[in-house]
Specification:
about 120 residues, 3 helices, alpha+beta, about 30% helix
Length: about 120
Amino acid sequence: MTNQRDLDMVHLRLILVSGKTQDFTFSPNDSATDIAKHVFDNWPAGWEEERVSSPSILRLIFQGRFLHGNVTLGALKLPPGRTTVMHLVARETLPEPNSHGQRNREKTTESNCCLLL
């Protein structure tokens, strides 16, 4: 029998660049930083070749976007009790916000034109 706590948990399938996967279960209150630390501290046996030197360089990618450290799984509105796929990569820094912001501004401009028509 499944209890309510299990239903509230978020199941993640993390994929490395190499294509290797591993499933983990987290609380909706866990942040991207919490997840990186947990994965680092519980590094899967099959991922030894990809082991990193520090949890601080592990980054999660969800729907094509890097998750910043304080973003919680609950904030992403992931479906509880179902498995969500995310990529896990080793990267010292996140992409420059300026380049990402520029892309968003261009999209916003296009959207405004369409809305005015």
